[in-house]
Amino acid sequence: MTLTHFQRYQTWYAALFLIGYIFINNTINASSDIMEAQRDGTLPFMLWEPFVWEYSSAISTLLLFPALVWLLQAQPFNWQKISRSLLIYLLASVIFSLLHVGIMVAIRKLIYIVQGMQYDFGLVWFELLYEYRKDLWGFLFLIVVIKTYQYVVGQLTGEATPITHAENAPQDLNFDRLLVKKLGKEFIICTDKIDWLESSGNYVNLHIGTRIYPLRATMTHLISRLEPQGFCRIHRSHAIRLDAIESITPLSSGDSEVKLTTGKILNLSRRYKEQFKGQINSSVVWV
């Protein structure tokens, strides 16, 4: 299934895109340094040096990228407390720049030592200021990239969020409706329309007929909120709405097959069979 595959490997896809973009960009910068220096007829540096300068910066940026993702999750920008958020992100940009320079210079010094040469960073305070000027722009650019990527993915997949009766209700409160935002539109889905749930990485896919809506949650947390509405977990990766069951077929392995009214067949694991028996409606005959 395309959506499930993308959700499962989207971190890898995003990482490959980021790595490709940064290294292509830095390769262009390195070749530009060489071409500009050649205008004077002779190179003031070895041919490989610009690539070391640019690639060391690229590697440093990639190593720090997960920290930016964490920052956006742990300290999302709050427009209601804009002064505090600006201070946090300003401080984060300074730390980002210092770490970026530190890793970058360490890589360069190591490579130069291997080549029997010495790398001179220059006047420290001046170079740090010079690098921060560039790193601040890179810091902001990466944040925009992360937020844009998250928004686009959410719009294309139609990510769902629970709707509770109270605006400031606790996260653990049960819910019976979901708000789905997709391609600039918003619509509401009742949970009693969901046929089954599928765990996929950091998401749980909500299957409604032929449509799939991802919800950022764990299966354990989500099913605990949906059990009062007739949902039951039947597998490590699957849960179903009991009213959507058409038939149950025991297997010689001790597991069972659960067929839904949509025709979908799911595995009922022995681990969840007793729990399933306890929740299933009395109208369903267990063979």
Describe the structure.
It is a single chain. This protein is of the alpha+beta class and 287 residues long. It has six helices and eleven strands. It has a five-stranded antiparallel beta sheet. Strand 2 (177-182) and strand 3 (185-190) form a beta hairpin. Residues 165-172 have low confidence and may be disordered.
In summary, what is this structure?
This protein has 287 residues and is an alpha+beta fold. The protein has helices spanning 2-38, 49-74, 82-114, 124-157, 219-226, 273-279, and strands spanning 160-163, 177-182, 185-190, 196-200, 203-208, 211-216, 231-233, 238-241, 245-250, 256-260, 265-268.
Keywords:
five-stranded antiparallel β-sheet, three-stranded antiparallel β-sheet, single chain, alpha+beta, elongated
Write the layout of secondary structure elements.
Elements: H1 2-38, H2 49-74, H3 82-114, H4 124-157, E1 160-163, E2 177-182, E3 185-190, E4 196-200, E5 203-208, E6 211-216, H5 219-226, E7 231-233, E8 238-241, E9 245-250, E10 256-260, E11 265-268, H6 273-279
Antiparallel strand pairs: 1-2, 2-3, 4-5, 4-8, 5-6, 7-8, 9-10, 10-11
Helix pairs in contact: 1-2, 2-3, 2-4, 3-4
